[in-house]
């Protein structure tokens, strides 16, 4: 699936079609690396990267093995010699296991390392809680210099990777594991730090980040539309730096904001939105996300989210509460 | 002899920094003073007037608590003014107890143990992949080797055969609570991780000169420098209490007198 194909895809077709952000990321990175010798793929035994990079681009690939602390500091060292390293691991291993290496060596030195993670949220589904990652947005956005981006689908992932090659500082890109619905169709210029309007509406605003949350936000807007309520849907792909202007506008022009994320409510998108509106334009906010608890059962990603209270129906209910309807 | 004299001056500076309100890590600074001085005066390819010169050798102080020794050496090479040392750990100073930013001559901030060897391995790999012939030297404490990330880095550098990477272990044998245990057989451990391991008296400048002047090739090299914590100041030599000390005026006078008594002729 190329960008051109995505741009000409009809929305109805696109919503039925699912593409893996992880696969698109890998292909786009390999394509960019083939013509830009600064790009360097740092693998930590993820599987698959060695075929894409190791064989055709051996000078721009290294596998550190199952050693995430080393992954981060080696990437920092490579960046210091002029490379643009893409450090690949699972979200929880990047944000929690190797947290200090990211904080001290990468963010602390403002080095242009791109930490691209998979298995975020509950996208590892039945693999269980050790492979889920519900707190990485909170962890990463506390680090000065760090940019935090959560693409909402494969198309946006491609735009993110292509447009951030020359970002001077560190970047955290939060991807899931499996295929997710395409929500970004048609021509689209990705602008880092600027929320994308997916749907216009002046009654209430739904702000979402990540694949399923954004898709669910659109479905919730349809539910609300059937009740005559116009929901504005913002895809907040950049959680840090967050689009303050879009949030102020939402507070001014609509009854309030519902946030949606596949992340705990502590410190995530909802918290970041509250930080902005509490200071700039206090307004009603309801946050939809994962509870302050560990999962002790497994299921597919979507089922886990719905079970935990992240669903189009719950988003719509929250929107009704925000507006007092 | 000039390196010997320089190492003596570095020790004097360490003691002076120890008089600040927060003291300093005297024991571990004095134990690595000879190695550090030799590296900066005779081994590393540097241009102090152009600290980020691309052709420089890289030095990473992984045992960041020895910052006083590093600052003392940076003064020796003109990266820092001698007068600035008086600001050590004082309000507003850039001279922190652990190097907190990239001062001229400081490649990476450090202090959290177990980071330096991975950083050095990444730099060494990057230098090699871009065809640059600079070398990377990383100074670790022996207690620091208890950090698991050191061995992640050791395994990686050995596997990649990064022969432009040199680790130096300041083997002073003491950590805060007492003897540094659990590391033997140390040289053999590094060898099984794919490294050359060389042991040397870390206070014998002639021996150190000979080791660093003829490092083996083909693999990364670890130089295990057998040292004495607090070396040069009898009051502190081999004492675990020398780890972090704030020198009162009286203690400072005693320490300086002790240092003078061990001064090389």
TrEMBL record, chain A:
Write down the required cofactor(s): thiamine diphosphate
Task: Indicate whether Amino-acid biosynthesis appears among the record's keywords.
Answer: no
* GO MF annotation terms: magnesium ion binding
According to its UniProt record, what is one Pfam family this protein matches? Transketolase_C
Q: Which UniProt keywords apply?
A: Thiamine pyrophosphate
Report the leader peptide range.
none
Please verify whether the record's keywords include Coiled coil.
no
Locate the Transketolase-like pyrimidine-binding domain: which residues?
A: 19-182
Q: Which family does it belong to?
A: Belongs to the transketolase family.
By what name is this protein known?
Answer: Transketolase
Tell me which species this is from.
Answer: Goodfellowiella coeruleoviolacea
Automatic annotation (TrEMBL), chain B:
Q: Which UniProt keywords apply?
A: Thiamine pyrophosphate
Q: Which SUPFAM superfamilies match?
A: Thiamin diphosphate-binding fold (THDP-binding)
The record's section on InterPro entries has:
THDP-binding, Transketolase_N
Q: Ubl conjugation: is it a keyword of this entry?
A: no
The record's annotation in Gene3D superfamilies points to:
3.40.50.970
Q: Does the keyword Transmembrane helix apply?
A: no
Q: Which cofactor does it need?
A: thiamine diphosphate
User: Which residue numbers delimit the Transketolase N-terminal domain?
Assistant: 20-247
Molecular function in Gene Ontology: magnesium ion binding
The similarity comment for this entry is: Belongs to the transketolase family.
Entry protein name = Transketolase subunit A
Q: Which organism is it from?
A: Goodfellowiella coeruleoviolacea
UniProt lineage: Bacteria, Bacillati, Actinomycetota, Actinomycetes, Pseudonocardiales
């Amino acid at each position: 699936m190329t960008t051109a194909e995505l741009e000409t895809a009809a929305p109805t077709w696109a919503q039925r079609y699912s593409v893996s952000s992880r696969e698109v990321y890998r292909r786009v990175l390999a394509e960019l690396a083939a013509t830009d010798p600064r790009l360097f793929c740092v693998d930590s035994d993820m599987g698959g990267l060695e075929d894409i990079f190791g064989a055709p681009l051996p000078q721009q690939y290294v596998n550190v093995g199952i050693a995430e602390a080393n992954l981060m500091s080696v990437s920092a060292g490579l960046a210091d010699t002029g490379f643009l390293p893409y450090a690949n691991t699972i979200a929880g291993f990047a944000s929690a296991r190797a947290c200090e290496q990211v904080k001290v060596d990468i963010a602390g030195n403002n080095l242009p390392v791109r930490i691209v993670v998979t298995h975020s949220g509950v996208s590892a589904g039945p693999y269980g809680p050790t492979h889920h990652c519900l707190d990485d947005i909170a962890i990463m956005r506390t680090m000065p210099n760090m940019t935090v981006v959560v693409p909402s689908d494969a198309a946006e992932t491609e735009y993110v990777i292509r447009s951030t090659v020359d970002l001077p500082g560190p970047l955290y890109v939060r991807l899931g594991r499996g295929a997710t619905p395409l929500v970004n169709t048609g021509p689209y210029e990705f602008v880092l730090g600027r929320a994308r309007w997916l749907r216009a509406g002046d009654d209430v605003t739904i702000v979402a980040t990540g694949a399923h949350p954004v898709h669910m936000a659109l479905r919730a807007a349809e539910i609300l539309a059937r009740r005559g309520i116009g929901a504005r849907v913002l895809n907040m792909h950049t959680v840090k730096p967050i689009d303050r202007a879009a949030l102020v506008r939402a507070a001014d022009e609509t009854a309030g904001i519902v946030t949606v994320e596949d992340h705990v409510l502590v410190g995530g998108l909802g918290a970041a939105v509250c930080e902005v509106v509490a200071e700039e334009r206090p307004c009603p906010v309801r946050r939809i996300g994962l509870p302050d608890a560990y999962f002790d059962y497994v299921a597919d990603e979507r089922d886990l989210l719905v079970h935990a209270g992240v669903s189009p129906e719950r988003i719509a209910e929250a929107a009704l509460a925000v507006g007092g309807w | 002899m000039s390196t010997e004299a320089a190492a003596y001056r570095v020790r004097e500076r360490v003691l002076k920094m120890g008089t600040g309100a927060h003291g300093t890590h005297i024991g571990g600074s004095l134990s690595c003073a000879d190695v550090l001085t030799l590296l900066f005066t005779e081994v590393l390819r540097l241009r102090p007037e152009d600290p980020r010169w691309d052709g420089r050798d890289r030095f990473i102080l992984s045992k960041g608590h020895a910052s006083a020794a590093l600052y003392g050496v940076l003064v020796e090479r003109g990266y820092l003014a001698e007068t600035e040392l008086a600001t050590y750990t004082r309000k507003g100073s850039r001279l922190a107890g652990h190097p907190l930013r990239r001062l001229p001559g400081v490649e990476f901030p450090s202090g959290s143990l177990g980071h330096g060897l991975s950083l050095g391995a990444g730099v060494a790999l990057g230098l090699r992949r871009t065809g640059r012939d600079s070398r990377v030297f990383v100074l670790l404490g022996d207690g620091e080797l208890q950090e698991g990330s050191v061995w992640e880095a050791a395994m990686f550098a050995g596997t990649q055969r990064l022969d432009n990477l040199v680790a130096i272990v300041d083997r002073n044998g003491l950590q805060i609570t007492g003897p540094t245990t659990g590391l033997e057989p140390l040289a053999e451990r590094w060898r099984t991780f794919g490294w050359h391991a060389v042991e040397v008296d870390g206070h014998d400048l002639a021996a150190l000169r000979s080791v660093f002047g003829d490092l083996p090739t083909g693999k990364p090299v670890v130089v295990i420098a057998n040292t004495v914590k607090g070396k040069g100041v009898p009051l502190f030599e081999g004492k675990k209490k020398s780890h972090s000390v704030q020198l009162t005026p009286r203690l400072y006078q005693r320490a300086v007198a002790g240092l003078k008594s061990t001064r090389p002729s």
